Write a sequence for this structure.
């Protein structure tokens, strides 16, 4: 206890720092090594940080003076910009670039080029697109608050008129909402869990001890995240709550063993006797839960993997805290326990034993319905659909969804999808084809055609590319238009050239002129040199609020671009298309989420089945014991599959977690069943004894955990809400599996396979005393 007290300052600091830093950037959810993440990293290395915020407001038109005022406040023309931001572009500034640039684009055409990105469909509404600096990307929440402060305080924009969107804003909103979801409901979750625990234990002093052990386990685990260099994310924020709830459940189990020890031998030595009887089931329960959690590490989605690592570590810390701290506290300050024996016997006689007898009697009917039903539901798992689209994380009537809908309606979609045309060599100002199969002019025209192809795909509603900043088609037909004069020599050459030669000469001269303005295109950040070659960037915008099928969108864009390149006879030696940005990353993350769901669950099932086989000393019994533990996940996820419900990142890990938790009650039930059989009880009598001994505790711990988790259903943040709902339902289904399916299995001939003299479940004095106590409170049930 002294070590616990001394560690509190360091633990408290670690918790504060862990929640102070979060990373919910969807583009960083996949580890290095994936082709998509490598393409995205190269894209960012060439074109810089692409996390941007779209800022607009009601009445924000091209002529609104506040738009330029806002842009100057974000990135002043002289001096250092606000440290969170690197550059800013507005609709009016973009139009000015074309009007005042080397090609003198007419205003009407300039406005048309930016419609769907910087200018709305009406040609009037506009916005500011602010690109975050590296420091701003690392502190998105601070950057978002800085944008709001500049718009409201410096530019006089009414808060209810301000509209914010874009990747940077959504990622910052995830940071805010995920943390707010936990902070807002964690007190109620703690209160709910404690209230149920108090109703079970009826001792204020004991509840204080249980609360202290649970909170310490939770905060210690959270501090480890900071001290090991991890960062909180929208999945990891629920980890402290899960550890807290599961620690309370373990404490309730151990407290029941302690109460049994007090009733059987008095206060003297009761913590030791209770610990001797209960440490192994509690340790095994925590171990199987940790196995379910650590199986999540097979997922390539980083937040899910981090949850698996830290939550499994948290379970080991939890069992250590329970078996060390709780008995120590009970020894130092023994609580006054109310005598529940009378109430327990009443529940046993009036409810538990009749239920146990009915399950034994109707075991064949239960299994005939339960096992085929589980298989039928399991088929629905094949129809599960996953989503990591950030737009689904927020309520549709919330601020962020409303702002995104407003921006999409008045300006255009803000989700970026990048198509890069990678040329192995650099276009020069020489004669067309002299040093490269494609001249600068050829590449510009190719980019324009590919941009049109991409823009024709459904859900793509805006395009920016080097062609956006280039000359119009009229200039390419007649270079003397808009300032690209051929000169007297050029005109003379055209007069004496043939028709075919005139076209060649015109393009050659235009190519030379365009190459002079390479810096104009590079400054737009849609063309950049890369080693000996260069990359031309086509940035598309796709709708972010709709239930977009990223797989179909990506495949359709790739198909049309590849078809266009093939039509023009261009091989990958000449130009290689690269598809990157948020859309491909979301698609891969969704695929990995679904793969991880199945892989982690299968791994958890295999690991726990091996453990159960080792404990029961029988492969058949080990596999049979997994049937009631498989039931909850199959019931919930099979139903979701059949109903077409979406599984998001908050729900993905619940199957493996619930599998590990469900085994807890299975272990406790089998512990008492085997001990009773070892003491001479019949097979059916041992089932009734197990019901007497642990059915109430199993129900209590399920209620404690369920009450603490179901509170999060009230959260507006979808991943946290779905996690709380599914975990609660899974725990309830696990209780049904352990108190209905498992006894029905044990009541058949297969139940004999669970009987063993294994020392793992103990046959010493504690077991004998427990068995005698079970006999004393249980009627003889010796039917075959």
């Amino acid at each position: 206890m002294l070590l616990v007290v001394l560690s509190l300052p360091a633990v408290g600091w670690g918790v504060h720092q862990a929640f102070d830093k979060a990373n919910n950037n969807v583009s960083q959810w996949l580890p290095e090594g994936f082709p998509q993440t490598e393409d995205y990293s190269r894209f960012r290395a060439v074109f810089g940080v692409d996390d941007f915020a779209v800022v607009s407001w009601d009445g924000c038109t091209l002529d609104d003076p506040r738009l330029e005022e806002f842009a100057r406040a974000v990135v002043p023309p002289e001096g250092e910009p606000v440290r969170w931001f690197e550059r800013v572009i507005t609709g009016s500034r973009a139009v000015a670039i074309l009007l005042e640039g080397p090609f003198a684009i007419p205003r009407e055409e300039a406005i048309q080029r930016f419609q769907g990105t910087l200018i709305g469909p009406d040609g009037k509404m506009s916005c500011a697109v602010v690109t975050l600096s590296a420091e701003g990307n690392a502190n998105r929440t601070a950057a978002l608050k800085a944008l709001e402060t500049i718009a409201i305080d410096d530019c006089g924009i009414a808060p209810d008129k301000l509209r914010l969107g874009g990747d940077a804003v959504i990622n910052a909103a995830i940071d805010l909402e995920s943390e707010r979801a936990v902070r807002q409901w964690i007190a109620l979750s703690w209160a709910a869990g404690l209230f149920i625990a108090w109703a079970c234990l009826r001792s204020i002093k004991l509840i204080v001890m249980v609360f202290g052990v649970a909170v310490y386990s939770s905060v210690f685990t959270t501090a480890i995240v900071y001290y090991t260099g991890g960062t909180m994310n929208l999945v990891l924020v629920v980890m402290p709550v899960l550890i807290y709830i599961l620690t309370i459940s373990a404490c309730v189990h151990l407290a029941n063993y302690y109460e049994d020890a007090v009733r059987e031998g008095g206060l003297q030595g009761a913590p030791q006797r209770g610990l001797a009887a209960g440490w192994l089931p509690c340790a095994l329960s925590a171990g199987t839960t940790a196995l379910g959690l650590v199986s999540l590490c097979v997922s390539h989605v980083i937040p899910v993997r981090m949850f698996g690592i830290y939550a499994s570590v948290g379970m080991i810390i939890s069992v250590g805290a329970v078996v060390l701290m709780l008995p120590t506290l009970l020894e130092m300050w023994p609580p006054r326990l109310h005598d529940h024996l009378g109430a327990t016997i009443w529940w046993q006689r009036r409810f538990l034993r009749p239920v146990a007898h009915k399950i034994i009697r109707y075991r064949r009917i239960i299994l005939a319905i339960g096992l085929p039903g589980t298989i039928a539901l399991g088929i629905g798992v094949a129809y599960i659909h996953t989503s990591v689209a950030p737009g689904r994380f927020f309520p549709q009537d919330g601020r962020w969804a409303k702002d995104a809908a407003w921006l999409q309606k008045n300006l255009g979609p803000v989700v970026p999808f990048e198509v890069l045309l990678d040329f192995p060599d650099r276009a020069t100002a020489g004669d067309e084809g002299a040093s490269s199969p494609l001249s600068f002019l050829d590449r510009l025209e190719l980019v324009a055609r590919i941009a049109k192809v991409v823009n024709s795909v459904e859900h793509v509603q805006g395009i920016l590319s080097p062609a956006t900043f280039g000359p119009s088609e009229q200039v390419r037909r007649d270079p003397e238009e808009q300032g690209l004069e051929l000169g007297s020599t050029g005109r003379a050459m055209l007069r004496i050239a043939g028709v075919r030669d005139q076209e060649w000469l015109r393009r050659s001269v235009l190519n030379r002129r365009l190459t002079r303005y390479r810096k104009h295109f590079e400054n737009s950040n849609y063309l950049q040199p890369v080693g000996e070659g260069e990359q031309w960037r086509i940035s598309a915008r796709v709708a972010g609020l709709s239930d977009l099928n990223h797989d179909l969108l990506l495949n359709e864009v790739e198909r049309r671009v590849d078809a266009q390149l093939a039509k023009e006879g261009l091989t990958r030696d000449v130009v290689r298309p690269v598809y990157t940005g948020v859309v491909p990353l979301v698609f891969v993350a969704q695929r990995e989420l679904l793969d991880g769901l199945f892989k982690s669950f299968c791994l958890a099932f295999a690991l726990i089945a091996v453990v159960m086989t080792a404990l029961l000393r029988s492969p058949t019994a080990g596999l049979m014991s997994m049937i009631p533990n498989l039931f909850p996940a199959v019931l919930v996820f099979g139903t979701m599959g059949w109903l077409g419900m979406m599984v998001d990142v908050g729900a993905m890990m619940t199957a493996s977690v619930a599998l590990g938790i469900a085994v807890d009650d299975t272990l406790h039930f089998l512990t008492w069943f085997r001990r009773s059989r070892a003491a001479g009880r019949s097979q059916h009598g041992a089932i009734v004894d197990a019901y007497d001994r642990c059915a109430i505790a199993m129900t209590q711990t399920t209620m404690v955990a369920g009450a603490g988790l179901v509170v999060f259903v009230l959260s507006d943040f979808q991943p946290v809400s779905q996690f709380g709902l599914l975990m609660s339902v899974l725990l309830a289904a696990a209780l049904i599996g352990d108190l209905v399916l498992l006894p029905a299995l044990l009541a058949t001939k297969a139940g004999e396979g669970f009987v063993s003299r294994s020392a793992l479940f103990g046959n010493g004095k504690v077991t004998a005393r427990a068995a005698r106590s079970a006999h004393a409170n249980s009627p003889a049930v010796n039917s075959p």
Remarks:
- The longest strand covers residues 533-542.
- Confidence is low (pLDDT under 50) at residues 431-435, 479-485, 757-784.
- The chain has 29 helices and eleven strands.
- Residues 475 and 481 are 5 Å apart (CA to CA).
